[in-house]
Amino acid sequence: MSSSEKQPTNLFPDLPPYRPPQHGLLSYLPSSWVPYGELMRLSRPIGIVIIYCPYLFGTFFAAAVSDPPPSPVALLKTDFILLIATVFLRGGAVAFNDLADRDLDGKIARTRHRPLARKAIPPRDGYIFVAAQAAIWLAIQVQLSQQCVKYAVPLLIFVGLYAYSKRVTDFTPIPLGFTIAWGVFLGSVAMGVDPTRLVINGETAKAAALCCFYFSNAIWTNIYETIYAHQDIQDDEKQGVNSMAIRLKGKVRSVLYLLAMLQVMLLACTGWLIGAGPLYFAGCYFGVTVSLGVMIWKVDLRQPSECWWWFSNGTWFVGGSIVFGFLGQVWGNKLLDIL
After folding, report:
1. Does the N-terminal peptide bond of residue 68 adopt cis geometry, omega within 30 degrees of 0?
2. Chain centre distance of CA 168
């Protein structure tokens, strides 16, 4: 093997070379494990939170439409299992995405040190690592219920298709949104509310509400992913890589406001279809409206650091508002009745 095959060409001589992690979880791992921890993005847990949110929301939706609602202990137990599963789903998904993009990542400043891009992990080992995480994730779904497996298998297919979607479309946040939002169905099914059975049993209002909730989560993904993509917009343009951020250049903020309006409208439809009370609308309508509005208004899309800050912190604002709304719907309204 030639030296050029062993060592990737340095396209960024003015930028600092790779250094092993000096702090955080990865700094405590054996050196041979570090590339795999990096491949799972363990140093950036916000990705786990973002992917976990639809699962969490799905369990809360199921609790809101169940009569009687599940106990807090049962809900927390299911949510904890789904959180563990999400660690492996996210790890496998980003690893598979890096396998698909390993040649391109080395040409982008922000991603040049990813383990596959710098050839710290052979592609064959990367595929084995992805398969192992997918197997663990599926095993956890089996433990939750057989119904979960029926919704889990399509999700793995969606994850694989998304990794190569940028080869056929510039609007990759759209398939990513449908993929991540699928967790709403899995979370709901894990708590015993299967959208297919809702339709079969004639509970069309609940089924329609769950679909509205699914699409609202898909739109939310498009919003934060478009903001996230602005971190790489200059490098993408240099490499001739088109993206939704580039295609919408000059009108991105207007599109983000439009998407935010659609998300809020779908959340309002969700609440109306399930007969939600005022606490739901306080969180899922008013709270989300304010959170999205401030984020889109304040973010400076020309500054990568600001894009990252709002991507990582906006999740807490929007997600927290949705959690508040559903918790209020499940248990808060009963408390108001008592008072």
Report:
1. yes
2. 21
CA distance 301 to 50: 20
**187 and 58 Cβ atoms separated by less than 8 Å:** yes
Digit-coded pLDDT (tens) for 26-66: 989 999 999 999 999 998 889 999 999 999 999 999 999 99
Contacts of 44 (CB under 8 A, 6+ apart): none
CB 25 within 8 A of CB 74: no
Q: Determine which helix (DSSP H) or strand (DSSP E) holds 137, and give its type and residue range.
A: helix 123-144
> Residue 64 to residues 122, 195, 248, 255, 268: CA-CA distances in angstroms?
47, 14, 38, 32, 15
Listed range (45-59, 96-110, 192-206, 247-261) with the worst mean pLDDT: 96-110
Helices (H), 110-251: 123-144, 146-163, 173-181, 183-190, 195-200, 204-229, 233-239, 244-247
pLDDT of residue 8: 53
Residue 173's identity, in one-letter code, is: P
Residue appearing with tokens 């699914």: 214
Q: Is 298 within 8 Å of 317 (Cβ atoms)?
A: no
